[in-house]
Request: fold
Amino acid sequence: MNVKIVDITADPSIQSRVEIDQSAVGDYADLIREGTDFDPVVAFDDGKKFWLACGFHRFFAYKKAGALEIPCDLRKGSRRDAELYSIGSNAKNGLRMTLADRRKSVQMLLDDVEWSNWSDRQIARYVGVSHPFVAQLRRPEKKADAGKTQANAGKTQAKTKADAGETQAPVEPETTEQDEFIAALQERNAELEKSLTLATLPEEMKEEAAQLIDDLREENRLLRIEIDAVKKSRDQFQAENAQLKKQVAMLNKKIKGQ
Reply:
């Protein structure tokens, strides 16, 4: 069906893309003037407004072309229904999503009280990204909670050491030039492996594959950091436990001496 353009509300906050590609709007408008038919846009009718959910570029192209009406798949639903539809539709239709578009789409779900309860894999499938990409965006929340936990643990450890008479702070090993050189070689090797992997893929798959490789490498890096933190906590606990055992042994000797 055709709907009057003035009756459709194109709320920018519903649009899951970062921005409207004005060059695409211009190209579409030229085609519309030449008589090209585009797929209908999708809008949701809540009884008061028609909320545009899919087809923002087509919508603005019809306006630019001077059209009064636009083909529209009008459905019953709320503004919220339109927002959720918008998030999932761009992964399947229209212009290719940029990395910023993918990030915004995922973040819209993570910022919502209800949708944020979806698993990383559910969100990834809905938006059309990898689940490590979702996990990476969700991780800052976990990092904040982990940071508070580590800070509290640090205070407890400091108090335990003070009570035990231990004043010597643990010395972190210094990073040598050799360590930095090895790290640089490992990074270079990873880049070469990535290039070789991409070289064997069809051109249309390279961009998505490159993003997936970067997402996995970042997830792996963060996991290594977490593992190192756990190891350090374990070592500190063992050192404190050994110190307490020494104190207990000294107290036992004093008791027996009395």
